[in-house]
Amino acid sequence: IPLIPGISIYQLFRNTALSNPNETAVIFLDKKISYRDLDDLICRYASILKGLGIGKGDVVATMLPNSLQHIVAFYAVTMIGAIHTPIDVMYQADEIAYQIKDSGARNIFIFDILYDKVAGLKDTAQIDNIIVTNVKDWGSPETIIPKSLKYFWETPKQKIDGTIDFFDALKTCTPLEEAETIDPKKDTALLLYTMGTSGKPLGVIETHFNLVFNSLTHAHAFRSWEGREINFSIMPMFHTSGYLLHQLPTLYQGGTVIPIPLFDLEDSFRIIKTYGVNVIFAPPTFFIALMSRPDMIELYDLSSIKASIGCAAPVPVEVQKQWKELTGIPLLNGWGMTETNSGGII
Question: Which helix (H) or strand (E) holds 75?
Answer without folding.
Answer: helix 68-79
